[in-house]
Amino acid sequence: MAYVSQTQPNSFFDRIGDFLVSLFNSIDLAASANTRIAEMEKLNAKTDEQLSEMGLRRQDIARHVFRDIYHI
User: Fold this and answer.
1) Region 14-35: what's the mean pLDDT?
2) Given pLDDT bands bounded at 50, 70 and 90, which one contains residue 64?
3) Which of 57, 26, 29 is nearest to 43 (CA)?
4) Closest Cα to residue 46, out of 36, 35, 34, 56?
5) pLDDT at site 59
6) What is the DSSP letter of 4?
7) The pTM is what?
8) Is residue 58 within 8 Å of 51, Cβ to Cβ?
9) CB–CB of 51/43 below 8 Å?
């Protein structure tokens, strides 16, 4: 049994739209990464006592900052 699939080639405007979506996704990812790095630097600058008051240990900073991505 043979399967034949015919697909219409993407139009020029569809390809431009796909490119813009991927561009905006990249920009959003970069902005999110910069925010997370800034938060990690801010937490790393705190003393162990300050982190303890927040309920954090120094080794848990990365897990805390990326908790919504890794679900750890």
Assistant:
1) 89
2) very high
3) 57
4) 56
5) 94
6) -
7) 0.58
8) yes
9) yes
Residue 57, phi then psi, degrees to nearest 5: -115, 155
3-state secondary structure of 37: helix
Cβ contact 44:35 at 8 Å:
no
Using only C-alpha atoms, the chain has a radius of gyration, in whole angstroms, of 22
- By residue count, the chain amounts to 72
Distance between CA atoms of residues 67 and 51, nearest Å: 17
Three state DSSP letters for 1-28 = CCCCCCCCCCCHHHHHHHHHHHHHHHHH
Measured CA angle at 67 (ends 35, 46), to 5 deg: 60
Query: Among 4-8, 15-19, 59-63, 68-72, where is mean pLDDT lowest?
Result: 4-8
Q: Does residue 1 surpass a pLDDT of 70? A: no
